[in-house]
Amino acid sequence: MTFNINDIKSPDFIKDLNIEQLNNLCADIRSFILENVSKTGGHLSSNLGSVEAIVAMHYCFNSPHDKFIFDVSHQAYTHKILTGRSKDFVNLRKKDGLSGFCSYEESEHDIWESGHSSTSIAAAAGIIESGNVKDNIVVFIGDGSIQNGICFEAMNYIGSEKNQKVILIVNDNSMSISKNVGRMARRFSKFRIKKSYTNLKRIVPGFMKKGLIRLQNSMRTFVYGSNIFSSLGYKYFGPIDGHNISELIQYFNYAKKSSDSLVIHIQTEKGHGYEPAITDNFGVWHGVGPFNLETGEIYRKDNVISWSDCISKIIEDKLEENEDIKIICPATLTGSKLLECKEKYKERVIDCGINEELACVLASSMSRFGRIPIISIYSTFFQRCYDYLNNDCARQNNHVIFLLDRSGIIGGDGATHQGIFDIAMTSHIPNITIAMPKDNVEARLLVDYAIKGDGPFIIRYPKEDIKLDEYLDEYLVDDKNYQIDNIARWPIIKEIQDINIISYGPSLIKFKKLIEDNNCNKINIGLINARIIKPIDFETVQLLRNKKVYVYEEVVRNGSLYSMLIDLNNEYKLNIDFEFFGINNEFVTSLGSKDEIKEELGLREIDLITKINNNNNN
After folding, report:
1. Going by C-beta distance under 8 Å and a sequence separation of 6 or more, which residues neighbour residue 82?
2. Fold of 304-470
3. What is this structure's pTM?
């Protein structure tokens, strides 16, 4: 039996399917995901590995009455399919299309949206404490996410409260979480959920129940060992085959009837059903672009490299040059292109898991004992370590270098992954230097400058490509702007005029071309490279007295370079007419490509040039 996936309107239809039909449905869903993601790109391996578990969840529970919370929710494609959204997969992560994560706007079945890891159990606690939900609360969380501190805090909180129940499905696809004694553990788990065992508890006389409970706990400890879940007050079952529908249903039905909080530990194969994803040991197929479904070849653009590739090459060179440097990465080695560095310098490249807070304190402490720690982290995840950045790093003026990958506007992932808040988050903190290079030469120079300096130093760079014909491999030693002694000065790319643009990053390359294009630009415009965003180059700013200056940034307004310049302008009465050209203090929610988002926001470089021309003509 095969299913027309596009005909699925709600999960109700699976309630009457037998085990064979459910297995067929899983096979069809897996094929559907492969076919669509091969065209659109998206999170692949995690979704292939979770098909049976999510089908079993919908078979046993009744969403949306029972509340499903998917941690991160990047693995919820099967959930989206079963809740009637399969027709929208052709536009997955595209403009006005289907989100790659759970979305309140898409469905009543999506009751928690995050996009960041490790919030699911705390969200479940909030639902419990609301007092407005009487049905089951089911959390689906991966083994990588559950190690984060907030998960333990939430598990401890729920486990310590009486009459509060949550069902935690821990998806283990890479390592064992809890010690167990294989076959005996499985047998004991099955015994506990049999009706005969439940009935036995009912008929045992009251005076024997305490003895039965002690025996039960003793047997559980013998079988599983004392694991963190049982210590926190949860019944623990597992590991269970996460691709065995019949077994999953058995345990989920027991969990549904139980009055206690439970952990159901399932073991799945990440990438299950697609060989290239199964054999991937580095996370290449976790989030992937379009690819050839038959050959497994990932389509790549010609004549380009990514900014992540560019920075990783610089970091690899620095590791070779300086033995005091260590790299710390909170679970983003693959995305930040640092796998080769990890292979080559195993002891000096640390993956601390999804623990951004740990990364920050680890680096701060390390810096006090003679090392130069460099943290590679996505801008949107950098927000999670604010307290530790402030108190443990900046306050102590510890020499830690932060490489903020995916800074600025991000295409495809929606509001949760935009890198538009890091400057606002850090610009007010004392001792911090913030920088952004326009090209790889400037990137290498800024890394050198950061290594030779002191205190916390942030280097931002975008999620986009660099054309190889614009990729420069050597220093421009004949240009004073590329000499390290002058790095704190803002290069004047185009001579200062009555009307000027200040910006930073790769946008400067586009502005330079647009200003030099006579068909595009009708007036003289000065162009200044604010590559060191903080501290501001006051000497250059003074050259702009009584002039008009547009500040172009892919960040929110408050706390931006523009905000800092306004304060400086007011304090020193420079009479500069500043105007912000960036993002208002709002979330960028659009999907689609970066270019499409910038066009929607009216934030393309050509939009600013057009505005200047129009204002001048009027």
Report:
1. 8, 10, 11, 14, 54, 55, 58
2. Rossmann fold (3.40.50)
3. 0.89
